[in-house]
Amino acid sequence: MAVHIAGANVPDSQLLQDTLESVVVQPPNPLRHRQHLCLDKGYDNPTGESAARVYGYVPHIRRIGEEKLDHRGRKIPPGPAVGR
Length: 84
Fold this sequence. Notes:
The protein is of the alpha+beta class and 84 residues long. Helix content is 18%, strand content 12%.
């Protein structure tokens, strides 16, 4: 678990390395137990992936332009599903 405080105008993707560096509870040894880190499209850049790897995480980052699909492989429309 970690916390890093910054101004509201700072994008989360710019705080990833600082947040991972601030971890208080040490995760298990990544050589024995792989640690996964799920991130959204905002982290789809070289610094997001490399920061995760530097701290021993396996990054899972949804790519920009990648559609979100349901369990049947159908596109999920954006926004709330009102009246469905």
